[in-house]
Amino acid sequence: MTNRFNVNGVMVSGDHFIHGTRVASAETFETRSPMDWDTVLGNVARGNEETAQLAIESATTAFSQWSGLSAKERAVYLHRLADLIEEHKEQIANVECSDMAMLFESLNLRLVPRGAANFRNYADLAVEHEERVWSSKGTLNRVIRTPAGPAVIITPWNAPFMLSTWKCAPALAAGNTVILKPAEWSPLSASVLADLIEKAEFPKGVFNIVQGLGSEVGNALVNDPRVKRISFTGSVPTARIIGKAAAENIVPFTAELGGKSCLLVFADADIDAAAKKAAGQFDDSGQVCMAGTRIIVEQSIKDEFLALFNKYADQHVMGDSRDSKTTMSAMIHPVHVDRVEGFVNRARENGDTILRGGKRFIEGKLWFEPTLIAPKSNQSEVVQSEIFGPVLTFQTFDTEEQGVELANSTVFGLSGILYTGNKERAERVGRLIRGGTIWVNTFLVRDLTAPFGGIGLSGLGREGGHYALEFHSDLKTLQILE
Ligand code: NAD
């Protein structure tokens, strides 16, 4: 009997999707909506070692057929999947909105369409790719990109649909078969994706999705020597564990990890725009890896900036994510809210100053007030650790040098946001800030062909454009005597 349950009007399967068919597990785990934690949305298959074996066998069997197709032939499937995502946009948005409380409007207008764009982008990029050919030392040299093998893709609970598609698309376009393991706190949109993969009539075993806990089925997947690529997005502690498994099997591994990005504002900036963007870091309740969580402002504009920031932060509405007036969603899980609250409580004990917010919006519920903290020192825990909630810090600087020093003073380096009205400073400081992506006078604008990734504890390797295609390929040089 198939395990399907109604989520916001969509019948979602709680089973795995392996070799083109739904597979159940004897054990299941509950998934609940952060908006209404008392109600169970459904029971999801809790994969184990056996599930991982089945999925890897499936992906291994399908590899010779999929890798034998041309990029153009594979592109047909990827575009068909993109079409289906566009057709089922609202259903996907409804499911993800219930499962992780991301705002429906943001999913429907931005993140689900981006999922379709991810498949289209990689379908076309792989076709456009030209082999490098040149003559040297009397030989014709040709660089050939061959598919690497089955790839395991592990995703986190935030923005699960967009991130899964972003990570699976290059693997498939490059000719690898895929096993996707979504996070156990938001497993459902991946299951809707499985239905669309079936509708798109991918060859069996090309694109498999297994559900379950990271420490169980996730761990079994990344340790299997038949897996030829591991692409991970999540936390630093998990990256360390998966990195060891990848090292054991000598398997290339990318890690997209946490951040503690700066939002650095100079006195010459459009201060209103900068303050508005700073208050916008509370969107998605701060559960965004790239969020500019350390606001660092030139001392001379401190009061003006704070007044504007508070004006915009006051406009946030915490509520049901299906309601278009809501701007701040419930947070993913009670454990995560406790974690965020712990950071704020320790900041108080440490002598940091809570400038606004600092507590749950409604006791017993999963919304946390938009919070701003002026730390006692740059070494305060709230400045140095990723909180991953609606908690920002506020610091000031006097000189450009001090601003850059503060911006670069954590172990992370995922991204950064800079506000300045001076073009030369934009170039100069933009180059000095440590991070994989630095936005100047804007935020979250993405070109899918640009590299994306982190420095330091924010990650290893780059996704995006041909960088991800290369990661998922084995490069070979063919030299023929001329
Ligand atoms: P997490 O590390 O707890 O879990 C991520 C995934 O890893 C989940 O699917 C989990 O089941 C799996 N996992 C856990 N242990 C495993 C193991 N031993 N073997 C295999 N898989 C295992 O992270 P999270 O809490 O889900 O995500 C939040 C983190 O992700 C934050 O640090 C955030 O900044 C980061 N993130 C980074 C990016 C980026 O692009 N850099 C994007 C989104 C989120």
From TrEMBL:
One of its GO terms (molecular function) is oxidoreductase activity, acting on the aldehyde or oxo group of donors, NAD or NADP as acceptor. The keyword Transferase does not apply. InterPro entries: Ald_DH/histidinol_DH (IPR016161), Ald_DH_C (IPR016163), Ald_DH_CS_CYS (IPR016160), Ald_DH_N (IPR016162), Aldehyde_DH_dom (IPR015590). The keyword Acyltransferase does not apply. Residues 26-477 form the Aldehyde dehydrogenase domain. It holds the Pfam family Aldedh. Coiled coil: none annotated. Keywords: Oxidoreductase. Belongs to the aldehyde dehydrogenase family. This is Aldehyde dehydrogenase family 8 member A1. It comes from Paraglaciecola arctica BSs20135.
